[in-house]
Amino acid sequence: MMTQTNDKLQVKIGGMACSFCTMTIEKALGRMDGVTAVHVSLAHEEALIEYDPAKRTPTELRDTLRQIGYTVRDSDKVRAYEEQQAELREARNRLIVAGTFTLLTALMMLASWLGYRQPWFRPLMIGMALLTVFGAGWHILVMAGQSLRRGILNQHVLLEFGAFAGLIGGFIGLLNDTFPAADFFAVATFITTYHLLSGWASLLVRTRASESVRQLLALQPATAHLILPDGETVETPIEQIQPGDQVRIRPGAAIPVDGRILSGQSAVDESLVTGEPLPIEKTAGDEVIGGSVNQNGMLVVVVRQVGEDSFLAQVARQIEEARAMKPGLLALVDRVLQWFVPGVLLFGGLAILLWTVGAWLVTGEPNWTRAIFAALAVLVMGYPCALGMATPLAMIRGGGEAAERGILIRSGEAFQVLKDVDRVLLDKTGTITQGRPSVVETVIGEPTTDYRLPITDYLLQLAASVEIASEHPLARAIVAAAQERELELLDFDDFVAVTGRGAQASVNGRLVLVGSPRFMREQGLDLADLKAALARMQREGKTAVIVAQDNAALGLIAITDAIKPDAAEAVALLQQQDIEVVMLTGDNRRTAEAVATQAGISHVFAEMLPGEKAGKLRELQAAGQRVVMVGDGINDAPALMQADVGMAIGAGTDIAIEAADIVLTGGRLTAVVDAIEIGRSSYKKTVQNLWLAFTFNGIGVPLAVTGLVSPAWAMAAMIASVSLVLLNSFGGRLAKSTYI
């Protein structure tokens, strides 16, 4: 009996604004028959839906999203990004309009308080308030209505209650002089503009984060050199290449397709797959991957995968899936708002009851004027301006501290997650190690005494004199080591490179061979004296390059990607905080374990493809762990996106940097420890700010029930609460800078 497999639908969603939106979408889709799992990412405005195709269609799922008030963006990555850019421009334009009205309103209020009043002030303020709420803020009004219809109380709802309270109070003030009409209209303008500012800032961050997929897909060449049946080669757009076609790839060119080599031999740089800096020798029958680089030989490749089936497209898809499947996080301020919003509405209703029913019981008649004034004041005072700024200000403070240490924190969620981290996963190459091969050891084989230099220096001098003509990464490492020792390179003749083996040349009239042990054995050399050293190098994950002269092996040069000077220190510091450190790499197990031993890491996952790395993180997250991933390559991007907090080495690829929440600009590994400490400190500051802000709102809202708090005083209280939060966030740093 065949088992029906579920399909996955990746959807770009517009109109998401808070954690409540995430929960709404998950509930609406998750309750549909045939839907087995729903993963929603607020940060990237995406949903990944797993469903039974026998029960549901993609059209039905998209229609459900539209019915609950959200937009579904174009599935084409480029067009979706263009739509997102258009939304950002629209949000910016709305903010400019509302900001202009707010500035004019503030100037007119200030002028009025100073005694300079004009008859046209009031109608202008009315017009600007209406245009702000129903013009620039129309989409917020729509979202608030949709939230109320679904029974959700969020900041959109509270904003509109406050804004409409301002408008209603203002219009009542036109008929009743006891209501300060201008103040009420000003409040409606101010709080709507603040809300637009918050929405624009959030959209700006999300738009920038979506760059990673676009950059990744741009790595694939736009054309390929298609071989026609008559043997001619024609440059053809990659979209027209089909599986089974044959393409020719010249030396130094990027490989445009996934395929199998029919003829030719070359070294291929596949660092985008494994993250390893050394090229892999390829010959007929070997597989190649689109986006990797053919270094020094002509290849003819038969196409196997193109388009959505290609490796780069799969990695892009894995990044997108990782975005959607990243564990959701209900922000601390949203948790506060879950109780704060209903509380404000409850106090508003209490104000009406107090001055109608309560006043009737005491005086014999209800005081409707005081009841309306008190209710409106409650809703105005209840708008959580300082609550909304508590987290951003703490983030700015923490971000400033981090920047001083070479750490760029790009995600607000990172500050909240870092306090709970219990496992850090490290990529190997470029993260734990330097990311480039270097000479670390020389071993002498055949003893000799007829040279002016010490034998180890002469060994390196000979090898560098031959390898200076090669572009191979191992050759460059040997030449660099000779230059560091200030060794004079010797003249050579008759240079010959043997692809995948080594090179030979005549130096001072004597034949010098430099290459792999396999190359030397093919030349008939006896390597018995180096057998023990070769075995040890292999165990330690080092690459051995043999140097021979006149058919005698002089010795070997050990080359490896050395670990960073602070790698072991960083691992030890993390372990001291009860954070488990794990290596996650695409390299072979022997090399990975050798590097892990040097760094003090006991848990290693080796030979992992990009999607497998992200899958491993999902396993850990499913077990309830908070995970940090640190990497630098394209192959790390899905895992960096999937991690609770992704940290990219600043010297790494743009794809990794765009996929990460934090960028370590200096490349030092101890910066991971610094970032965690700063994140924990910033979270504590956020909690302090929220308590300060909540204190003002918590005291101000009950006071407003008395009807003695005017809108002007409500705005003054908002300014005072924001100022106090600002002082708490930056006062210590300002005082510190004063004494430096």
Reconstruct the topology from this structure.
Layout: E1 7-14, H1 19-30, E2 35-41, E3 46-51, H2 58-67, E4 71-72, H3 77-113, H4 121-136, H5 138-149, H6 155-175, H7 181-209, H8 211-217, E5 223-227, E6 233-237, E7 246-249, E8 258-263, E9 266-269, H9 271-274, E10 280-282, E11 287-288, E12 293-294, E13 299-305, H10 311-325, H11 332-363, H12 368-381, H13 385-404, E14 407-409, H14 412-417, E15 423-426, H15 428-432, E16 438-444, H16 455-467, H17 473-484, E17 492-498, E18 502-507, E19 510-515, H18 517-522, H19 531-539, E20 543-549, E21 552-560, H20 567-576, E22 580-584, H21 589-599, E23 603-605, H22 610-622, E24 627-631, H23 637-642, E25 645-649, H24 654-659, E26 662-664, H25 671-704, H26 711-739
Parallel strand pairs: 15-22, 15-24, 22-23, 24-25, 25-26
Antiparallel strand pairs: 1-3, 1-4, 2-3, 5-6, 5-7, 7-13, 8-11, 8-13, 9-10, 9-12, 14-26, 16-21, 17-18, 18-19, 19-20, 20-21
Helix pairs in contact: 3-4, 3-7, 4-6, 4-7, 5-6, 6-7, 6-12, 8-10, 10-22, 11-12, 11-25, 12-25, 12-26, 13-25, 13-26, 16-17, 25-26
Features:
single chain; six-stranded antiparallel beta sheet; alpha+beta; disordered C terminus; 740 residues; seven-stranded mixed beta sheet
